[in-house]
């Protein structure tokens, strides 16, 4: 049975700043993802805090929200068979040092915090995160 899903991908400030937007999109397309909607935006700190609310008790929360709001990001609605899992696989581990060869974070990530991309981690969070950026 087919299981076409949509997931949220973000090209984070470190990658936009290094002009990696085109190369990262090319990797998604080469791996069978369709970019259904996309926009380049900059969010403010309180929007970043809302987006990352699941992490509010973590020691890195404040820095994470400063970082996500520090410069332009590209948010994309991606679609593919099993898109949520497939995107997590293609991104690689949170820490680029642990990410497998061929993953986006291995190729472009600078550090555990500046790891170039975000991807929804579950169907529930994909729907919440897509609504956050694309709800009309
Ligand atoms: O992004 P991912 O789902 O792989 O990781 P997460 O555990 O949900 O953490 C969200 C984001 O917080 C990461 O992508 C990092 O940018 C950041 N983070 C950090 O700065 N320091 C950590 N020790 C863990 C995560
Ligand atoms: Mg996460």
Strand and helix layout:
Layout: E1 4-11, H1 13-17, H2 21-30, E2 34-41, H3 45-51, H4 61-68, E3 73-81, H5 83-91, H6 104-108, E4 117-119, H7 123-134
Antiparallel strand pairs: 1-3, 1-4, 2-3
Helix pairs in contact: 3-4
Describe this entry's structure for a reader.
This protein has 136 residues and is of the alpha+beta class. The chain has one domain (4-133): Alpha-Beta Plaits, CATH 3.30.70. It has seven helices and four strands, in the order E-H-H-E-H-H-E-H-H-E-H. The protein has a four-stranded antiparallel beta sheet, with helices on both faces. The chain is globular, with a radius of gyration of 14 Å. Cytidine-5'-diphosphate (CDP) binds at residues 55, 60, 64, 94, 112-113, 115, 118, 121.
Number of helices: 7
CA radius of gyration:
14 Å
CATH superfamily (homologous) name = Nucleoside diphosphate kinase-like domain
Number of domains: 1
| Mean of all residue-level pLDDT scores | 98
Structural class of the helix and strand makeup? alpha+beta
Q: Provide the list of bound ligands, each named once.
A: cytidine-5'-diphosphate, magnesium ion
Instruction: Name the CATH class.
Output: Alpha Beta
Point out poorly predicted stretches.
none
Beta fraction: 15-25%
Which fold name fills CATH's third level, the topology? Answer: Alpha-Beta Plaits
């Amino acid at each position: 049975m087919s299981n076409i899903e949509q997931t949220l991908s973000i090209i984070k400030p470190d990658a936009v700043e290094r002009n990696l937007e085109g190369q990262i999109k090319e990797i998604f397309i080469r791996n069978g993802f369709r970019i259904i909607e996309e926009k380049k935006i900059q969010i403010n700190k309180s929007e970043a805090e809302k987006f990352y609310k699941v992490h509010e008790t973590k020691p890195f929360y404040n820095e994470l929200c400063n970082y996500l709001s520090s410069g332009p990001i590209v948010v994309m609605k991606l679609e593919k068979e099993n898109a949520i899992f497939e995107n997590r696989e293609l991104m690689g581990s949170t820490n680029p040092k642990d990410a497998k060869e061929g993953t986006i974070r291995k190729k472009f990530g600078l550090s555990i915090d500046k790891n170039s991309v975000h991807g929804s981690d579950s169907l529930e969070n994909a729907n919440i995160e897509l609504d956050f950026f694309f709800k009309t």
